[in-house]
Design brief:
single chain, alpha/beta, 3 domains, four-stranded mixed beta sheet
């Protein structure tokens, strides 16, 4: 392809971060977003030089890369400090005092985006929903550099926000998510969230984990499709499309490969069930995707996770590694001949 690339060059730090991610990837267009994230995590924004280097490495037109970079709220194309506090002012947080919080920050830390009175290497910005509605008001801290950091902070106060802008590091989030009805026998989707160690495959198995996949192997693909159709399980979207019909259509499609895509990008205020599930029961997500793969003949799965969900991403990454190590993902799942693996994006 004949590309007209930008003339700007990346800084040594940007080049190092991008090349460390891409390695010898070649024309891997699917690595565009991770490469943009790597550049920003190193210096705090995506410079023209970084954008040019990514386009050159991946053979992507700059206009296309710019379109992606400018779409995501967490990516910045103009210089800004390495420490940024995103303060949610969406409806759930407004109901919990976000407007008053932002007004207090404007008085004491300066207007959003200009550095204000804290050190000029930190700014705060108003943010759309961060998916932490049950702990509102919420904030999301990003710190760029050689050891970048992302941390959700909720509930947040003006005092905590000013401390974060001044350079303090927030404590790690609680080991287990808050599920007020934890232990309620009526729970189904969130039955294990808050009741098990989300990082332990053995704990997951002790609470019934991977029994459904064993049953699915015994039923076979057609049997699983029949069960899902008979259950009348439907999608959670407005169309409420029957899940079994969707799976059956994929299974009968002769064109290969097939993929399972788990869309965990929930950003509507008041919607945070996906985050609770990923943080509190990540192996359940992988087991369910593997059952879908068995039924529909999928070789690979992708989980799309919001950038604002660092704990969910970390828990899922740990679960994927452990599942691979224990033969529950990979070339021969459970020794039953299924080849299926999962990648986070």
């Amino acid at each position: 392809m004949d590309l007209r690339l930008l003339e700007a060059e990346p800084s040594p730090e940007e080049r190092e971060a991008i090349d460390a991610l891409l390695g010898d990837a070649g024309e891997r267009r699917d690595l565009l977003l991770p490469a943009l994230q790597a550049a920003q995590a190193r210096i705090g924004f995506v410079s023209e030089g970084a954008l040019s280097h990514i386009c050159r490495r991946l053979c992507i037109p700059p206009a296309e890369a710019y379109g992606v970079a400018s779409f995501y709220a967490l990516l910045a194309l103009e210089p800004r400090p390495g420490r940024v506090l995103h303060v949610c002012d969406d409806i759930a947080c407004r109901c919990s005092g976000a407007n008053e919080l932002c007004a207090e920050l404007e008085r004491t830390a300066g207007p959003p985006g200009n550095g204000g009175r804290p050190p000029n290497d930190a700014i705060w910005l108003r943010s759309p929903c961060l998916g932490l509605c049950e702990r509102a008001p919420a904030a999301f801290l990003t710190v760029a550099g050689p050891a970048p950091m992302e941390r959700s902070v909720a509930p947040v106060t003006a005092k905590i926000a000013r401390a974060l802008l001044a350079g303090e590091t927030p404590p790690l989030e609680a080991a287990r998510p808050i599920v007020p009805q934890s232990g309620d026998p009526a729970l189904r989707l969130l039955a294990r969230a808050g009741a098990i160690d989300p990082g332990s495959l053995d704990d997951y198995k002790a609470h019934g984990g991977y029994e459904a996949l064993r049953q699915a192997f015994d039923l076979g693909p057609d049997g699983v499709l029949r069960e899902v159709l008979d259950s009348k399980l439907s999608g959670r979207g407005g169309a409420a499309f029957p899940t079994g019909r969707k799976w059956e259509a994929v299974a009968r499609q002769p064109v290969r490969p097939h993929y399972v895509v788990c869309n965990a990008d929930e950003s509507e205020p008041g919607t945070f069930k996906d985050r609770i599930l990923m943080e509190g029961d990540p192996f359940a997500v992988l087991e369910a995707m593997t059952i879908a793969a068995l039924a529909t003949g999928c070789e690979r799965g992708f989980i799309y996770v919001r950038g604002e969900y660092p704990l969910a991403s970390a828990r899922l990454e740990g679960a994927v590694r452990e599942a691979r190590n224990r033969g529950l993902l990979g070339s021969d799942v459970m020794g039953r001949g299924l080849a299926f693996d999962v990648e986070l994006r």
